[in-house]
Amino acid sequence: MTATSTPPREAVPQQRVRQRPGDRIFAGLSTAAAVMILVILAGVAVFLVWQAAPALVAAPEQIGGESFWAQVTPLLFGTVLSAALALLIGAPLGVSIALFITHFAPRKLAAPLGYIIDLLAAIPSIVYGLWGVFVFAPAVVPIYTWLNENLGWFPLFAGPVASGRTMLTVGLVLAVMVLPVITALSREVFRQTPTLQQEAALALGATRWEMIKYAVIPYGKSGVVAASMLGLGRALGETMAVAAVLSIGGGITFNLISNQNPATIAANIALQFPESTGIGVNLLIATGLVLFVITFLVNFAARAIVARTTKG
Amino acid sequence: MSKRIDVSDLNIYYGDFLAVEGVSMAIEPRSVTAFIGPSGCGKSTFLRSLNRMHEVIPGARVEGKVVMDGQDLYGSDVDPVDVRRTVGMVFQRPNPFPTMSIAENVLAGARLNSKRMRKSEADDLVESSLQGANLWNEVKDRLDRPGAGLSGGQQQRLCIARAIAVKPDVLLMDEPCSALDPISTLAIEDLIQKLKSDYTIVIVTHNMQQASRVSDATAFFNIAGTGKPGKLIEMADTATIFSNPTQKATEDYVSGRFG
Amino acid sequence: MSQLTTSGSGLGLGHSRHLPTWAPYGVLVLAAAFSAAVLALAGFNLAGFLVLTAITFMIVLVVASRAVEGPRKATDRFVTSLVVGSFLLALVPLISVAWTVISRGAARLDVEFFTFSMRGIVGEGGGAAHALAGTLIITAITTLISVPIGILTAVYLVEYGRGSLARAITFLVDVMTGIPSIVAGLFALALFVLILGPSARLGIMGSVALCVLMIPVVVRSTEEILRLVPHELREASYALGVPKWRTVVKVVLRTSVAGIATGVTLAIARVIGETAPLLVTVGFTAAINYNPFDGRMATLPTFSWFSYAAPSLPVEASIDRAWTAALVLVILVMAFNLLARVVSRAFSPKTR
Q1: CA B188 to CA B190: how far, in whole Å?
Q2: Contacts of B114 in chain C (CB under 8 A)
Q3: Chain A residue at shortest CA distance from C322
Q4: What kind of architecture, by CATH, is found in domain C115-347?
Q5: CATH assignment of B5-95+170-254, given 3.40.50.300, 3.20.20.140, 3.40.47.10, 3.40.190.10?
Q6: In terms of CB atoms within 10 Å, which end of chain C has fewer, N or C?
Q7: Which residue from A195, B155, A9, A241 is spatially nearest to C304, judged by alpha carbons?
Q8: Chains that touch B (3 or more CB pairs under 8 A)
Q9: pLDDT tens figures, C146-205
Q10: Residue among A2, A6, A14 whose CB faces B61 most closely
């Protein structure tokens, strides 16, 4: 009935309804739990700022000679570079896997194949770290050597090649780690493409690829962007895999295959923390705050895109 | 068990929107009263206000009075939960609880309220309620099976059994047959005839033949246009409404010349 | 879109030509044989073989398709092999990780590993009993805190929440989902350091950090499930004179218990492998500590990490322990994933 289907959201003067104690207690409990989320997040922000403040305002000589921003810049660079590499490799791969699962694989296999990709997300990051160091890094050394010999004039591949524990390796490992994130959301988006349009395209004699190009990809574009942003957020904050794999030299460089790499914020915290005391800990927390702000912005942008598309 | 309901000048709002305006009527005990009218005319909304079910939607409220045997259902000290225990309801689509067996579904009113009950007492209630809903013979051998495994018509009768198991005085039915096939519909209509000796029954239906078959009194609701409130146009004996209505709109509607 | 409507292959005209259905498989065999032959001359290795096979396969298939079926069909074949190829490519790390963890972890998967801590162990031997205990204790506490808060928050959002508070909570849960795990660790650290002084390292701190990561996962999955419960069931319950809170507990939550339990189990699987937050909050120790409120605790992920990053001599024994800890961790995670499926089967409503 049209009269009942359009209740206005705004609650106007409600009739005084006598509430049972059970109802009041339960409503109170669940509201309290929800408010708890607010409190926790406020706590995260407040305590991080509180503990970061000493390092933010400290004189350079108190925190190792350089100002906070001079110290955090190379870390920021490493963080963004590794995450960007991961996205550059992981996003196309993730999207095409999502396409494979939704539009190419036999329908019966779609769920199990999706599950297999989800397994990649279930592997703890420390395991990726060990695998990256002991298996993957040595395996890519020949490729890096080849790149360096043939494309060494190009700054990205300047080398010298040594252990394979390089920025590019980290990018590849992170790509594998963000792959399931990107695939999962893209899969959702592709699955929701209106089948009518797809069938219409096929009825017009389109090949499967043409159908996807005209009826699936335009529809899912913003979903894919959002998925990639979420993947980026994940890559920016990844700690253990980077800490284990990356051979750190400090400084800022675009050389992707040498052993002298800038650290990332997260990996730096994990590596430095056990030996840090006093203001050193404050310094690490301050860098963590920077990371928090960046991932917050990236995730915020992703959610905004998702919200805009689901509304329109 | 059966009670009389008097409604006077009832307005029903959703927020600022007036959905039903100025309804006054008397619903007799031990009879079947049918509400008919076009879609969106407010008959379901009005029905749901009789056991305060419309309050489930946020922002919903009423003005006016609904008096059941001398007690105002909207009095300030009345708990809507108690109202719903006296005025039961059956919905358009059968909705047995999927996690419960047939027997548990019948006992749901008691179980969900954590009422203690002896085993023999519970068994008796299950049997009498299912007997009352003309379902006992079909399900007595599989009471522990899930309620969702029954056919649509059986599920609807299970829902009726569930509603009468809480021993209400009034039974509201919101288009109870619209999701059922003709044979199941017939079974429900037979059941309604049987139930009216014990309960006051109010039924909303889209099907005029059904209204004329099962009801003693009929109320016709109409709406002037989209966004306008629904109103009660006319209420009388079912025979009068269908053969000799006083209003032109009623005559147009029951003769199928509507809209 | 014009190229769609001017599609050349007329229906039933009989002159549209297709490669036989076995063509891709035939080409694959050919490409494999070709690559094997080439590499036999240059020195065989598996990775090279696979890459060369893939490239040869693609080139031959696309060229053949272009010649026989025309450019549009060739593009289609090209994309298809690209898409299938990317899926197969994703399997490579999965299989490699699984194989490595199993083969290298198996070396120390012995009784001693589960019964000994590292207390007083020099050199080979020793175990991760202390780390296993720590992981289980910390994860259990995390679950105990996160599950009620998460479920109740989801109940609030679905059943009670209206207006700006509900919108704010929804938004904040999204924000929380994106918090990097190391930041969650730093939060717990910052919080407890304020209370207990700079050297505070406790099991409970780790739990608090993990809660920040687990709560949003529980909220999201529970919320999704609760929204799936049909409104008719709530109405049926209200109409029987059941108060709202009983309806929520006994109908809504009862109906969705399978989904909620599945979500919780997957959330546990997610946090049980977290390393970074524990590194900064719980620290590390060589001995068993069952008390989460007193001093450092070892956990499997940090055990694995320190065995790798700060190995004792001989290094090989230490690295072996790192791999075995990783294997046990993976087994735990997979067990929880599997449990999630069992739970979902066991609790879901039956119709027969």
Answers
A1: 5
A2: 246
A3: A130
A4: Orthogonal Bundle (1.10)
A5: 3.40.50.300
A6: C
A7: A241
A8: A, C
A9: 999 999 999 999 998 888 899 899 989 988 888 999 999 999 999 998 888 888 889 999
A10: A14
